[in-house]
Amino acid sequence: EWKLFSDASHLPLFEQAHNLFSSINIYTRTAPVLASSWLAGAYIDLNDLASAETYLSELYEKVLAAEYQWGIAWTKQAMAKLALSKGDAATWLSLLQESLELFTAIGDEWPAKNISETLIWQKYLSGKFEETARLSKQIIVLYEKDNEPERIARCYLTLGYVAFEKGEYATARTFFTDAANIFIELELPGDGILAKENIAFLLYAEGKLQDSRSEYLVLLSQLTTLTDSYLFGFLHARYALVSMGEQHLIEARKSLEIALEVLKKTAPKDNIYHAYFGLGELARLENNTQEASNNYCASLQYVNGFLGYVYFPDIIDGIAKIECSRSNFDQATKLFGASEALRRKIGVVIHPVDQPDYDKHIKLLKSQMNTEDFESAWVEGANMSIEEAYEYALHD
Description:
mainly alpha
C-alpha cells in the first residue's frame, strides 16, 4: 500500500505537475503517469474519493489511448486502491490481478513483487489456497534470483499457514522452521519470534498442550522489554488458548486482558480479532453466554472487515456452541452446517485440539433433534453463501 499525505499542503505541487503533463499530453513515459496517480492517491488519503476517481479515469483514458502498457498497469494499481477505499474488495482484487499480469508481461519486477505480496496474503485470507501457493512459489523464484532472503522467509510463513490450515502439520512445521532460521540469520529477532510462535501454536493445534506452553513461555520471556509491541499482544492472545485448553481460566483471562489492551494500541485494526475470539472462548467456558456471544460477534465482524474467510469456521462454530447452550438447536445446527460447508470449500480442517468439543456439540444436537429436522437445518446452513452465513451468525 502506497500512502502519500494526510493533509492538503502538498496538493498544489501535485496539481501543478498534473496540469503541466496534461498540457503536454504525452503519456508514454512514467513521469506523467506518476504525477496524476500521486495526485489521485493524495485525494484518496484525504478521503476525497470523487476527485481521485476523476483524475484516475482521465489518466486511464490517456494511457489506453497511448497504448502505454506500463502506464496502464500502474494506473490499474492506483484504481485498485481507490476501489478498496470505496469498500469494493472484489474490484480491488480484480484490478490488482490485472495490474500484476501486465507488470509481469513487461518484465517490471519491482511493482510485480509488491502486488504479488498483497495478492498472496489476500488469497490466503479468502481461502484460495492453490492460488496462494502458486503465486508464492512464483515470487520465491524472483526473490532467489535477486537475493532477497527476508522476503523468501515471509513466503515460507504464508506457505506454512496454508499447510497448517489444511492439517498438513509436518509441512507447516518445516516452512515455519525454515522461515525462523532465515530471520535469525538476518538478525531480525521479532520476525524470528513470530515464526517460532507459529510452531508453538501448531503444537497447540495438535493437542500437545504442555509442549506448546513451554514454547510460549520461552517466547514471552524474550519479549519482556517489548511489552508495548503488537507481537506481545498477539502472543498473549494465542497463549491464552493454550491456558484454556489446560483449564487455567484465570491465567487465560489475564493473558487476554493484556492482549486486548496491547492490540488496541499497536495492532492494525483487523488483528484485534485474536483477542475477541479468545474472550469468546473463555466466556463460553465460564458459561457466560451473552459475553461469549458479544465477543465472538466482534471477532467475526473484524475478520469480515478484511475478508478473512479462512477464520470464519472457527468463529461460527463458537457462536453455534453458544446457541446450543441456549437450547436454540435449529439455529446451532444451521451454523454448524454453514461452517462445515465453508471448511470443505476452502479446504481447512478442524484441528485435533478442537475436535472433541466439536464432536460433543454435534452429538448433543443429534440427541435433541429428530433426524429429519437435524438434516434439514444442516443442509439449509450448508447452502448459505458466505455473506448469508455471516449475517445469520450475527443475528442474536
